[in-house]
Every structure is written in C-alpha cells, then in structure tokens.
Specification:
By secondary structure, the protein is α+β, with helices and mostly antiparallel strands. The chain has three helices and four strands; from the N terminus they run βαβααββ. The chain binds zinc ion.
C-alpha cells in the first residue's frame, strides 16, 4: 500500500428481520477503518474498480424497493464521490428483498489529515484512523 488515495470496501448483510438501527454496521467510515484489517472485503486503487464493486454488490442484492433512500443514494452518488468529491464515502444501506439490511461502504484512505492542533478537535472527535493495511500517513 502506498499513501496514494485508495478505497477499502466493507460489506455487511444482516440476518433476516433486523430492524434498521439495531444492526451491527457502523455508519462512520472511521469506525470501519478502526476494525482489524480482516474486516476489509477488498481494496481498490482505481475509482473505476471501486465503482464496479459497488455496482456488482447492488446488483447481487436487489433492494426491497429501488426508491429506498440508501439504495438510490448509492446509485446516484457512488461515481461522483469516487471521481470528484473524493473526501466523501460512497455507501449503500437498504433493505433487500429477503428482509435483510445490506450495507456496503467504500472508505477513502488515507483519511483527511487531522487538525494540526489537538485543540481544533471537538471533545467528541477522535483523530482519523491510520490505514488498516499500514499505508503511511501523509
Ligand atoms: Zn488504506
């Protein structure tokens, strides 16, 4: 791994019947990156490859309704986030046709540089996690 921008893919599918919010999938990319490296499903150095992964994941796990916000969000914004707004995290979060919560997330890494002075962090903020695969921090 270099310190070039790359994306770590994370995938979570709940058992049937889990209520959204009661699942075990954190929503913050930092929380995923703090998990052990074995939690990573795949790592992509090219945005095109990351986009293909997300597309395949959505196709393999059809939503209960294509109008679901967390499904539509991924179909609308994944490419924009991967190519233009690269500090944004592409994500999908929706109920599939088997009544399971599907969460897919592409965490951009390395994370944005932390504030230069710790005092600039709000008390509830933690410094961003390092690359779980050991890429040097810029
Ligand atoms: Zn990384």
């Amino acid at each position: 791994m270099t310190n070039e921008l790359h994306w770590h893919a994370y995938a979570y599918t709940s058992p049937q019947g889990v209520v959204p919010g009661d699942d075990e999938a954190p929503f913050d990319a930092d929380d995923w990156l703090r998990r052990p490296a074995r939690a990573i499903t795949a790592t992509f150095e090219k945005p095109e490859a990351a986009a293909v992964w997300m597309h395949q994941q959505l196709a393999a796990n059809p939503p209960w309704s294509e109008g679901e916000h967390g499904y539509a969000h991924a179909t609308l914004f994944t490419r924009q986030y991967l190519h233009i707004d690269q500090d944004q995290t592409p994500w999908a979060y929706y109920l599939d046709r088997h009544d399971r919560i599907v969460m897919r997330l592409l965490a951009p890494c390395p994370r944005p540089r932390p504030p230069s002075r710790p005092a600039e962090l709000y008390p509830w903020e933690k410094p961003p996690p390092p690359c779980p695969l050991g890429a040097p921090t810029p």
